């Protein structure tokens, strides 16, 4: 076969969400769309805020020449400056446009970061449960994944990180608010992770990056200030996007921000510009850059996601499901009432409710339910959740 055996194997491994997606189509065909309750996807349901449409119309009417041409690979200077100014006011750190690079979503940002820092065989630590795509991003950019664990509240475990670090460790990826658990990592935990990374650097005489994937940063349901990573490790880089906070997942716009305190940040940014260009992104979409430059203070109505969480979470708990309360993002990660999460997801599926087994996130024994759906889908899924719990435990 002409397809690379590596890609063929990866497609096989990555088949969970895809399989649920395809089976969902078949179930809708057999039973009618209104009778299938799909909680398997993370496709933002809220429309972009009104300001987005206003800016889009303004750009459509702007007749100046040259607006859709190539630009510097890192993005328009005005956009980078606008993002930096927002970051400076959020973090209190002296960000300038030189510490910001516009990317093709958080996914594009992560690939650019990994391409820029990894040599063949370098290791990248993930904490399970993790967003499954990381495994492929690391592999595509020549790295090898090492998996550390979380505690029972899905907080990353510093001791487990220490145990998997080696002289080849080049990066540690964290994701908060987390997909699939909705957990937010508190300041003390990030500080502890930073401490373990620094011990590793001294032990091995190496340099290790702390990379935070933050596409859900503004989807938070607590009043606590968001704990940024920059104060906890000098080599810290953030990848993020407006896929969720502005509801622009299909428009592929995000950015990379590097710690202004990293003395070698210029070297990293040069490498990242090169990687962004030669991975074939060339630059982030021009129209979107012009729009988000003016929308740094805007976001979708996060209270709508919180309301959906508050529809699903107490209902599942009342049925007997064990689950941590998600503080952000739009997922929850209950314990599977059957020891085999895949079997339980199949049981739910037989009752026309679609979820994703924890196995797909490196954590068997749980399943992910997305509440990024309309209220009717949540309400319609509840009787099946209850029946499945009773069958599994009865
Ligand atoms: C944890 C996490 N990281 C990255 C991404 C990719 O997002 P983007 O659309 O910004 O590329 C997603 C998308 O669902 C995600 O859940």
Structure description:
- The chain is an alpha/beta fold and 394 residues long.
- It folds into two domains: 5-48 and 301-393, Alpha-Beta Complex (Aspartate Aminotransferase, domain 1); 51-293, Type I PLP-dependent aspartate aminotransferase-like (Major domain) (Aspartate Aminotransferase, domain 2), CATH 3.40.640.
- The protein has 13 helices and twelve strands.
- Strands 2-8-7-6-5-3-4 form a seven-stranded mixed β-sheet, sandwiched between helices. Strands 9-12-11 form a three-stranded antiparallel β-sheet.
- Strand 5 (169-175), helix 8 (187-204) and strand 6 (209-213) form a beta-alpha-beta unit.
- Helix 3 crosses helix 10 and helix 5 (105-117) packs across helix 9.
- 47% of the residues are buried.
- The mean pLDDT is 96.
CATH superfamily of the largest domain: Type I PLP-dependent aspartate aminotransferase-like (Major domain)
Q: Which kinds of small molecule does this entry bind, naming each only once?
A: pyridoxal-5'-phosphate
Q: Give the topology string: H per helix, E per strand.
A: HHEHHEHEHEHEHEEEHHHEHEEEH
Report the sheet-strand fraction.
5-15%
Estimated structural class: alpha/beta
* Strand arrangement across the biggest beta sheet: 2-8-7-6-5-3-4
Mean pLDDT: 96
Cα Rg: 21 Å
Kindly provide the name of the CATH class of the largest domain.
Alpha Beta
């Amino acid at each position: 076969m002409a397809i690379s055996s590596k890609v063929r194997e990866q497609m096989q491994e990555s088949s969970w969400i895809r399989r649920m997606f395809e089976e969902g189509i078949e179930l809708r065909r057999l039973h009618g769309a209104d009778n299938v309750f799909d909680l398997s996807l993370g496709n933002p349901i809220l429309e972009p805020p009104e300001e987005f449409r206003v800016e889009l119309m303004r750009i459509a009417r702007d007749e100046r020449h040259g607006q859709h041409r190539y630009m510097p690979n890192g993005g328009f200077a005005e956009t980078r400056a606008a993002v930096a100014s927002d970051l400076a006011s959020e973090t209190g750190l002296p960000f300038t446009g030189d510490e910001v690079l516009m990317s093709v979503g958080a996914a594009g940002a992560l690939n650019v970061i990994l391409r820029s820092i990894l040599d063949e065989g370098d290791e990248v630590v993930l904490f399970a449960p993790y967003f499954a795509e990381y495994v492929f991003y690391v592999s595509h950019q020549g790295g090898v994944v090492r998996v550390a664990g979380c505690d029972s509240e899905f907080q990353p475990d510093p001791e487990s990180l220490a145990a998997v670090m080696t002289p080849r460790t080049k990066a540690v990826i964290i994701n908060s608010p987390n997909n699939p658990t909705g957990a937010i990592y508190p300041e003390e935990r990030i500080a502890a992770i930073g401490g373990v990374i620094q011990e590793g650097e001294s032990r091995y005489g190496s340099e290790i990056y702390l990379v935070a994937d933050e596409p859900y940063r503004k989807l938070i349901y607590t009043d606590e200030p968001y704990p940024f990573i920059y104060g906890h490790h000098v080599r810290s880089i953030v990848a993020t996007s407006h896929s969720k906070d502005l509801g622009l997942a299909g428009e592929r716009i995000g950015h990379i921000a590097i710690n202004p305190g990293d003395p070698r940040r210029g070297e990293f940014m040069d490498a990242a510009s090169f990687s962004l260009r030669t991975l074939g992104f060339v630059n982030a979409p021009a129209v979107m850059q012009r729009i988000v430059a003016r929308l740094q203070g805007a976001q979708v109505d996060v209270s709508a996601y919180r309301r959906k969480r508050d529809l699903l979470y107490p209902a599942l708990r009342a049925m007997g499901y064990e689950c941590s309360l998600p503080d952000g993002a739009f997922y929850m990660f209950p314990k599977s009432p059957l020891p085999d999460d895949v079997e339980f997801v199949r049981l739910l599926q037989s009752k026309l409710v679609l979820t994703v087994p924890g196995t797909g996130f490196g954590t068997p024994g749980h399943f992910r339910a997305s509440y990024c759906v309309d209220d009717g889908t949540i309400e319609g899924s509840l009787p099946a959740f209850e029946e499945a719990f009773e069958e599994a435990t009865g």
